[in-house]
Design goal:
By secondary structure, the chain is of the alpha/beta class. Helices cover 41% and strands 21% of the residues.
């Protein structure tokens, strides 16, 4: 067998392995509040099913725009249930794949070094020592919309809005407070409970009746090239074991999956 033919066989073999590898892998666009919970879920899925989940985290609104423009994701986990609903209405999701999985919660968070007393709740934002407040951009981040609604409910929004340091997503928002770029922040409970933040600061929950529910849902996109693996991941995500993972990160499962 000549060298040219061997080279051709090698190229074909590499191509086959590459296609097989892609078939064993899905790409997921996930809201930033899922960053640590999804890492746990993806590791478990790979261990149990032998398939890889590549996750990109960001704001739900930005992902919604990207998916409408043809971004090559297999699944979309959104912190705002309206975005998956709109994709479903537009015929851009796999029929029957729409799945509301949980509600998110917001908290006021400061570092351990902070002298601020969080017992007063959102009123602490009026403290004269607070110069910068980290908040997710309400234009496309559901947690930013919830934060603004809660501040409006508390009648303090107009007094503190000029102090906002806006994060493109809730993960970046949290990083502003952790790094000291902001004195205090309104972040996702799921991030406050994450390994990166749990021992670094203090938080108090903002009552959930002061802001619209942060209803979350996921879908398999019709454009997915790996619908079989995506379907297996969706089924895995619906399991009781994963419900326990989500609960451990502070997600409220009452309106969504059975516990």
């Amino acid at each position: 067998m000549n060298v040219r033919r061997l080279s051709l066989i090698a190229l074909l073999a590499v191509g086959f392995v590459s296609q097989l590898s892609r078939a064993q892998e899905i790409t997921v666009a996930a809201a930033a509040d899922l960053q640590f919970a999804m890492q746990d879920v993806a590791v478990r899925f790979q261990k149990e099913k032998g398939k890889t989940v590549k996750v990109t985290y960001g704001s739900s609104g930005n992902f919604f725009q990207q998916i409408q423009n043809g971004a090559p994701f297999d699944m979309f986990f959104s912190a705002n249930i309206d975005y998956p609903k709109k994709l479903e209405s537009a015929g851009l999701i796999e029929p029957g794949s729409f799945y509301p999985y949980a509600n998110g919660k917001i908290v006021i968070w400061v570092t351990n070094e902070s002298k601020l007393d969080l017992k007063s709740g959102l009123q602490v934002l009026l403290d004269p020592s607070v110069k910068k407040i980290a908040v997710a951009n309400q234009q496309h981040a559901p947690y930013g919309q919830a934060a603004v609604a809660a501040m409006q409910k508390a009648n303090i929004y107009g007094k503190v809005k000029d102090k906002f340091v806006l994060g493109e997503n809730i993960s970046q928002t949290a990083s502003f407070v952790v790094s000291g770029a902001a004195d205090i922040g309104i972040v996702a409970l799921s991030l406050a409970l994450s390994p990166n933040m749990k021992g670094e600061g203090r938080y108090v929950e903002i009552p959930s009746d002061t802001y619209p529910p942060i209803e979350q849902a996921c879908v398999i996109l019709k454009s997915s090239r790996n619908k079989e693996t995506a379907g297996k991941f969706l089924s895995f995500f619906k399991s009781g074991a994963i419900a326990d993972v989500l609960k451990s990160y502070g997600f409220d499962l009452q309106p969504g999956p059975a516990k």
